[in-house]
Amino acid sequence: MAQTGITNPVEIEDVYPCSAMQQDILLDQISGSSEAYHSRRAWAAVVKRHGILRTVFAENRSLAACETSPFFQAVLKKPKVNVQRLSIEGEHDGQVVSALFEWEGGAPTYMRKQPEHRVCLCITASGWIYS
User: Fold this and answer.
1) Alpha-carbon dihedral angle through residues 44, 48, 49, 53, given to the nearest 10 degrees
2) Which InterPro entries match (predicted)?
3) pLDDT value of residue 19
4) Which residues touch 118 (CB under 8 Å, ≥6 apart)?
5) pLDDT tens digit string along 37-93?
6) Is residue 32 a part of any domain in this protein?
7) For position 71, which CATH number holds?
């Protein structure tokens, strides 16, 4: 807490973790660029606009909702937008791709009850953003 200027714990009522959005804003302030923040918001707007990006699929076990198909789809009103941030040291496209494959680590995992897509913002040391 020293970096906040607070030296006496009595001054603190409570402490909470930052939300993902708050973390993005703070990290962008540290790097001196708000491009990643705007990229995240732009992707959230695309997801909000297109129902297919808010869709989850599941097995239709009861067949009550749709008797002709063993599966159904549900379009969510407000899904969690899965945007990851990856800071890399390299500047060349090959280094960005290599860092992304290392980060990926095999098959992607998705959040339960959320659409199966995600975006990774690869940010180079000089501030270039690849997604």
Assistant:
1) 90
2) CAT-like_dom_sf (IPR023213)
3) 78
4) 82, 83, 84, 108, 110
5) 778 888 889 999 999 988 888 877 775 555 677 777 889 898 888 887 777 776 666
6) yes
7) 3.30.559.10
Residue corresponding to tokens 């090959």:
94
Domain total of the chain: 1
- Domain assignment present for 34: yes
Whether 120 is in a domain gets the answer yes
Say how many Å lie between the first and final Cα of the chain, rounded.
Answer: 34
Strands (E), 1-131: 55-59, 71-75, 83-87, 119-123, 129-130
| Boundaries of domain holding 57 | 18-130
Lowest mean pLDDT: which of 3-17, 21-35, 65-79?
21-35
Tokens of 42: 């732009």
Distant-in-sequence, close-in-space partners of 93: CB < 8 Å, separation ≥ 6: 130
pLDDT computed for residue 107 by the predictor: 63
The DSSP line for 84-114 is: EEEE-S--SHHHHHHHHHHHH-SS----TTS
Chain-centroid distance of CA 13 in Å reads: 30
